[in-house]
UniProtKB/TrEMBL annotation, chains A, B:
Keywords: DNA-binding. Signal peptide: none annotated. CDD domains: HTH_MerR-like_sg5 (cd04780). This is MerR family transcriptional regulator. PROSITE patterns: HTH_MERR_2. It comes from Actinomadura darangshiensis. It holds the Pfam family MerR_1. Residues 1-70 form the HTH merR-type domain. GO terms for molecular function: DNA binding; DNA-binding transcription factor activity.
Length: 209, 209
């Protein structure tokens, strides 16, 4: 297809597509003449991934360059590729140098060990959880593995579903795209439904209290 | 207890406590002498709720005044009180005047109806979910009730646990406090664990892909 069709189908302007090519995010099309190049479905797929990373994950160009580089490097496993992309998305919470934070972060590491989960030592999710532990303790809510069980169970079931729904043989770029959409957008779906479910559960228990 | 002890136990300065009294967020203590008042456990509990609303929910004083007023008004059911507080917390996403958003919001309302959940017509969670539906559709992910099932199930189980863990006979202020901590902080726990669970599920499926 020509660049105008690629623009129509991706919803991105020709100018934006040319910018992504200059920045090395999108491979050049194959030259048909001195002024025309031909693009295919892989270009469209790549553009959709870049859009998702930019708009939904709000990632800077440099982070997207890294992810795109890893997609093309077959030496990087699909898991390492997804983990790198998920870590780039963040959120990156500040890790203050204080004993409360240190203790919370150690508890998180112990929890991950106890669950036997494979989670990178530098995963932002570890810091995010530690950050939440600090806030909960400050408000007088202790944290034990027993308290966390329902959350661990819910998170694991949703994640298994998300990773499991990617069809076998899906191209690397498409797989990472789909998993990141789960990380960012379906996470918001879960948050919104959690709030609704709370309101519903509260109505059932406390409507006349 | 004197205001100095209330300050120690709440972690708030005497100045902040006096500010909350002036703003009507905290009832005055009972006068012991011309310059001294006596405070009790209810004052401490109230201060913890205000702190949670301010620091964790980042609510403005005016919203906290409303919630505190509703706590003292026995004509407001505990459920209405919690729903009002949860709605005040947000997040409040913009509801643009475009057909995609309108269709998504109608789908959300239909979904809530199908689930039979009690969720206020003006609940920000409805808009948040609609917002996410728009983004998912733009990326080419259709939304069906079947796709949402695992999220609905996880959200409902977690919410039932959260509402169920409040002991019977807990005072209104404490109940709202506890539920809001679930809304804000345990939601972050769920988010962090979801990211970890994704990374773990990805490692198991894609480590050698």
């Amino acid at each position: 297809m020509q660049i105008s069709e690629l623009s129509d189908r991706s919803g991105l302007t020709v100018q934006t597509i040319k910018f992504y090519i200059r920045e090395g995010l999108l491979p050049k099309g194959s030259a048909v003449s001195a002024t025309r190049s031909d693009y295919d479905g892989r270009h469209l797929e790549r553009l959709r991934l870049i859009s998702a990373l930019r708009e939904v994950g709000e990632l800077p160009i440099s982070a997207i360059q890294e992810i795109v580089g890893a997609i093309e490097d077959d030496g990087v496993s699909l898991h390492d590729l997804f983990a790198a992309a998920q870590h780039a998305v963040g959120p990156h919470v500040a890790a203050p140098h204080d004993p409360h934070w240190r203790a919370a972060r150690e508890d998180v590491d112990a929890l991950v060990g106890e669950l036997g989960w494979t989670v990178g030592a530098g995963a932002p999710s570890r810091d995010l959880l530690a950050h939440t532990f600090v806030a909960l303790r400050r408000l007088g809510y202790p944290i034990t593995l027993k308290d966390l069980r329902p959350y661990v169970k819910a998170a694991a079931e949703v994640a298994e579903h998300e990773v499991g729904r990617v069809p076998a043989g899906t191209p690397r770029a498409r797989t990472v795209h789909s998993l990141l959409v789960s990380t960012i957008l379906y996470e918001q779906v879960l948050t919104a439904l959690h709030r609704m479910a709370q309101e519903n559960a509260s109505a059932r228990r406390f409507d006349h209290a």
